[in-house]
């Protein structure tokens, strides 16, 4: 995973610089999300690494699937990635681009996984607390995982806060073993 991130980083930075210069951060987000979605499809992924296809054919296949939704700069990115045999990095490039965009906008994406669905009041309180702690605007999404038994796991970039009952039981079991 770290290797893929290392390979994807220069492309993400280049796209981000282009988007920032042209003031098209949201348009690039849309284009990258679209490309990433199609490139991660199982059938398309096979096509993008098929040895009998040239780089131009692989790039054109992805561009054709996306239709008229891509701008010329995004199409050019696809061709560059295909020539360098890096089309499989689109998901990582998209994630890194979104991180750079969030840093610029002083925002962070937070995923809260809880045993039960959060109420709107709970979500708002948690978002305000995280905003104060992280000193950034918080874009929060919630997921439900009943296997947590109780509590929640909060993921914000590299920060992970495990307040789940399952996590606490695991820590207790580890402490008892040592």
From TrEMBL:
Keywords: ATP synthesis, Cell membrane, CF(1), Hydrogen ion transport, Ion transport, Membrane, Transport. It is found in: Cell membrane; Membrane. InterPro entries: ATP_synth_OSCP/delta_N_sf (IPR026015), ATPase_OSCP/d_CS (IPR020781), ATPase_OSCP/dsu (IPR000711). It is a peripheral membrane protein. F(1)F(0) ATP synthase produces ATP from ADP in the presence of a proton or sodium gradient. F-type ATPases consist of two structural domains, F(1) containing the extramembraneous catalytic core and F(0) containing the membrane proton channel, linked together by a central stalk and a peripheral stalk. During catalysis, ATP synthesis in the catalytic domain of F(1) is coupled via a rotary mechanism of the central stalk subunits to proton translocation. Belongs to the ATPase delta chain family. This is ATP synthase subunit delta. It comes from Oceanobacter antarcticus. The gene is atpH.
């Amino acid at each position: 995973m770290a290797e893929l991130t290392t390979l994807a980083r220069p492309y993400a930075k280049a796209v981000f610089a282009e988007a920032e210069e042209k003031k098209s951060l949201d348009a690039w987000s849309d284009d990258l999300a679209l490309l990433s979605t199609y490139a991660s499809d199982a059938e398309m992924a096979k096509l993008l690494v098929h040895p009998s296809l040239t780089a131009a054919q692989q790039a054109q296949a992805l561009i054709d699937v996306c239709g008229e939704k891509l701008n010329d700069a995004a199409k050019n990115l696809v061709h560059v990635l295909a020539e360098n045999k890096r089309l499989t990095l689109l998901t990582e490039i998209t994630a890194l681009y979104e991180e750079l965009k969030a840093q610029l906008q002083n925002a962070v994406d937070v995923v809260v996984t809880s045993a039960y669905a959060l109420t709107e009041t709970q979500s708002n309180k948690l978002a305000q607390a995280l905003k104060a702690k992280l000193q950034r605007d918080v874009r929060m999404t919630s997921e439900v995982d009943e296997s947590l038994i109780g509590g929640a796991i909060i993921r914000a970039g590299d920060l992970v806060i495990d307040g789940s009952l399952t996590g606490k039981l695991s820590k207790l079991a580890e402490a008892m073993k040592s």
